[in-house]
Amino acid sequence: MNAATETSRKPARQPVHLAVYDTFADWETGHTTAYLARAGYEIRTVGPTREPVTTIGGVRIQPDLALDDVRPEDSSLLILTGADLWDTSDDLAPFARKARAFLDAGVPVAAICGATAGLAREGLLDDRDHTSAVSFYLAATGYAGGERYVDVDAVTDGKLVTAGPTEPVAFAREVFQLLGVYEGEVLDAWYRLFHDSDPEAYAVLEKAGQ
Prior knowledge:
This protein is α/β, with parallel strands linked by helices. It has nine helices and nine strands. α2 (30-38) runs parallel beside α7 and α8 runs antiparallel to α9 (199-207). The longest helix has 13 residues, at 184-196. Mean pLDDT is 93; it is low at 1-11.
């Protein structure tokens, strides 16, 4: 068997699913999805239904899939971004329940900003290290995981990544590490470039072909 044949028989990489809904926080997942796409992941948007949604920035998005049609076994990762709706209604609770299904199946979930509150209400942060905007924001949900709150930019515990709304770069870093997109000095250089504007980091990425 030659190398080309062996490569052609490798299973295709599963897509990454990005949850989208009205009041979606535009700025929170751009680094993550852009560089996952550059790494070869297909990004598929998932809405409550297939009906268009409108972000906080006024951008209309036509979801690729409805939430009910997404299965953990067909995905590499579920990304849940912040949205006003996490704190003003129960409309997004089905996305938190979907996150439970993903985690129960051993498929990663990454949640940022208000999505962390949704996971807290679902009980998914009670026994996992996590972070968010501030500890008292999650405490207001009445969840039982306050002792597992970590006051840092972003946290990975097992298959779950969490971050606060001001940390989209740290959020992306944790996702890349979890999926093995970047590692070691390349991961560190990527973070230093986009978080610290460190010009020396660019040379590391260029040498690594990134």
